[in-house]
UniProtKB/TrEMBL annotation:
Record-linked InterPro entries: FAD/NAD-bd_sf (IPR036188), FAD/NAD-binding_dom (IPR023753), NDH-2 (IPR045024), NDH2-like_C (IPR054585)
Region (Disordered): 440-473
UniProt key word Metal-binding: no
PANTHER family (UniProt xref): EXTERNAL NADH-UBIQUINONE OXIDOREDUCTASE 1, MITOCHONDRIAL-RELATED (PTHR43706:SF47), NADH DEHYDROGENASE (PTHR43706)
Source species, domain of life: Bacteria
Name under which the protein is recorded: NADH:ubiquinone reductase (non-electrogenic)
One example GO MF annotation: NADH dehydrogenase (quinone) (non-electrogenic) activity
Reactions performed catalytically: a quinone + NADH + H(+) = a quinol + NAD(+)
Entry coiled-coil feature ranges: none
Compositional bias of kind Basic residues: 441-456
Alphabetized UniProt keyword annotations: FAD, Flavoprotein, NAD, Oxidoreductase, Transit peptide
Species of origin: Aeromicrobium phoceense
Amino acid sequence: MSMVRASYRPHVVVVGGGFGGLALVRKLARADVDITLIDRHTYNTFQPLLYQVATASLNPGDITWFLRAVRAKQDNIRFLKGTVVSMDHEAKSVLLDGNITVTYDYLVLANGVTANYFGVPGAEEFAMPLYRRSQALALRDLIFANLENAAVNGQDQDLRVVVVGGGATGVETAGALAEMRNLDMPTTYPELDSKRIHISLVEMGEHVLAPFHPKLREYAKKELIKRGIDLRLKTAVKEVRRDGVLIENDGNQEFLSAGIVVWASGVAAHGVVKDWGLPQGRGGRIEVDEHQQVRGKPGVFAIGDISVNPDSPLPQLGQPAIQGGKHVAKVIKARVSGKDLPKPFKYFDKGTMATIGRAAAIAEVRGLPRLKGFPAWFIWVTVHVALLLGNRNRFATMTNLTLKYLLWRSHNAIVGETPYVIAHEPKIVSGSDIETVTPKKSARSARKSISKKAQVRKAVAQQTIDEIDEPRD
């Protein structure tokens, strides 16, 4: 068994290299501690832009950052790739997969959350969440696989993508898919009838983007409808099937046939957290006190989406994670140096925003009036680019978003591999159409093809004879 031991300095172990984990690590850059950052991936993912990867507007590398690069400006940290299996809080150790034990003096859990399916039958099996890079890539490739198949085999039935959840992720994903259909596909997929491609957004509540002011919510609703999105409010998903979703509105059930179901409705702690011997609250989140310390576990902290203070719950956004990470860093530095603890953590709400599409967004930013339309969209783009890690990522993302949203002449999509398309029936591709071949026509085409081959052979043979009969010099 491998053992990673603390050195003579206090050993801070941070599980999760997201917003909160990196904020804490960087705040401890000059502290008299050794830090081990653990993550199951070797990269940080900027989750707010995952939907841009899923809709082929950004490269996955644009929104990911190599976690080992944190050592470029900080030498008291090392990175360890692994997944937490269990914890022993009396021995102050964490067991990772691969039989690696990491000992700690201070443990900070910043490992984030996953999709919450709320017990809906079939949701976990057939719906596609958007919380990891691999999930965004899987969704992107499935979208284009369906489009390529329809381009060859025709649209014998309507194509539909159902997005479940009217929060920021759901609205932004539905808006991006609608703009792809409305603005790109007439050029890139002329074989398809865009009127037979549907984007449905299903929300159980009465509004989309419920945390926002009513006027901003109404604006978002109108913009979604303007883009041709089939908006289903006050509608619950009762079941997800391989070929669509069963929904219910006002006691009436309806089945929406769909090739893709995107799940953007709620989050919950990973199932393994229940085995860590920690108090859990709503959604399986770890309960913490006013200093983000896990209740009843001295020296163990939780920050970001995985944590909840029952007395003062915070929104599950990037800023609470970042601010929480910085606060815990202050607490650890105070304990290491023997100084007084800082004041209890207080979240400073800088505001929130969401985009519906090009030049359409809503924003509630501290110090500014409520914004909508282009001004809100411009702020949204600026803030999201600024929050990316690394100048290379910022430059690449800014370039791609500029080409996508400001220069409409570009219909280039950032795509991956899709399966070979197999025609359901024999096809003939002419200069302007793809025509299904009937059995009789197929036979005639075969005879015609044979006849043409025979004519070619005859011509070649005749040419050979003529060459033989020519007088030689």
